[in-house]
């Protein structure tokens, strides 16, 4: 028997009231923050800082759950399939929510439909660095060297499908050079092999590379920002070094499983916004080479869609594949 209009309205009102009551009672237990990369890397450091500040403001523990693997897609899939009850959050990145959808033919999650954006945290400066044994002091000299030695120079990345991998593929495509890919499982092992000279070039975050650059163990050629970076103002951009239009960002943002109540999303966004304004948080993130962004969930969603479109074009134009 069909329900009357009055009954349908009553059901809708009850559902809204129940959802509102649930959101008001939240959080009543610890929250899990899935970080889809290994402990110790830049993504993990950002995740633990956010978890600590959210725990303080929400009055509940926020437990970091490192789920590394497959360029961050394994952990992202775990978060996508979690109950949308506000007790699972994901620290998404340009790798997991902009690059992976274009690179992996059978991604186990939909980066747009399976998540709701919560807050963009910030972007991190990416450096192009070489081992000191490489006889190139500029991007132009490196391109000339790579063209003279096709297939002989190796680039390291933090994993298949990572932003460091695709930034190098983007560089190869625009510069017309042949470099061999050596994927690692995170920042630390890749940086160690780069310092040891087992790979010759890499694109990675300033927090991973700058200490070695300052110690003379690596040589920085450029940044991949569209304009000079405040993190390394002495370095030129790749775009100004012979590859006009080149730009690559590493970004970090909080997401939740699709269906998470809007009131909870708004609450987490508000707490993150307050945390990003704290001097100690700004100092820590800037020390990681990040530029703080923040903003509304809607702004983050628009940013993510634009980034996904850009990386889809890069993947297509470069012919990049997962090794």
UniProtKB/TrEMBL annotation:
Signal peptide as annotated in the record: 1-23
Q: Which family does it belong to?
A: Belongs to the UPF0065 (bug) family.
Note the PANTHER family from the entry.
Answer: BLR1237 PROTEIN, TRICARBOXYLATE-BINDING PROTEIN
Protein name per the record: Tripartite tricarboxylate transporter substrate binding protein
Pfam families assigned: TctC
Species: Ramlibacter pinisoli
Name the keywords, alphabetized.
Answer: Signal
Q: Looking at the keywords, is Cell cycle present? A: no
| Listed Gene3D superfamilies | Bordetella uptake gene, domain 1, Periplasmic binding protein-like II
InterPro entries, per this entry?
Answer: BUG, Bug_dom1
């Amino acid at each position: 028997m069909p329900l009357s209009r009055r009954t349908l309205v009553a059901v809708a009102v009850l559902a809204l009231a129940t959802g509102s009551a649930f959101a008001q009672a939240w959080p009543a237990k610890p929250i899990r923050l899935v970080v889809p990369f290994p402990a110790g890397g830049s993504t993990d450091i950002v995740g633990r800082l956010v978890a600590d500040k959210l725990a303080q403001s929400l009055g509940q523990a926020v437990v970091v759950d490192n789920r590394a693997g497959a360029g961050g897609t394994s952990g992202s899939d775990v978060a996508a399939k979690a109950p949308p009850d506000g007790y699972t959050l994901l620290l998404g990145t340009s790798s997991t929510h902009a690059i992976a959808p274009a690179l992996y033919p059978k991604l186990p999650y939909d980066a747009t439909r399976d998540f709701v954006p919560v807050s963009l945290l910030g972007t991190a400066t990416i450096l192009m660095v070489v081992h000191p044994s490489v006889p190139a002091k500029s991007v132009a000299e490196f391109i000339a060297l790579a063209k003279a030695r096709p297939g002989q120079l190796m680039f390291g990345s933090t994993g298949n499908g990572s932003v460091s991998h695709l930034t190098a593929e983007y560089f190869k495509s625009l510069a017309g050079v042949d470099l061999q890919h050596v994927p690692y499982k995170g920042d630390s092992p890749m940086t160690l092999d780069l310092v040891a000279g087992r790979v010759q070039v890499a694109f990675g975050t300033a927090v991973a590379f700058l200490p070695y650059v300052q110690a003379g163990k690596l040589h920085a050629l450029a940044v991949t920002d569209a304009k000079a970076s405040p993190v390394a103002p002495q370095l030129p951009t790749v775009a100004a070094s012979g590859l006009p239009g080149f730009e690559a960002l590493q970004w970090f943002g909080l997401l939740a499983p699709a269906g998470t109540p809007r009131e909870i999303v708004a609450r987490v966004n508000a707490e993150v916004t307050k945390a990003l304004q704290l001097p100690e948080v700004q100092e820590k993130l800037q020390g990681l080479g990040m530029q703080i962004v923040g903003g509304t969930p809607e702004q983050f969603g628009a940013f993510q869609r634009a980034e996904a479109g850009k990386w889809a074009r890069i993947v297509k134009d470069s012919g990049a594949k997962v090794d």
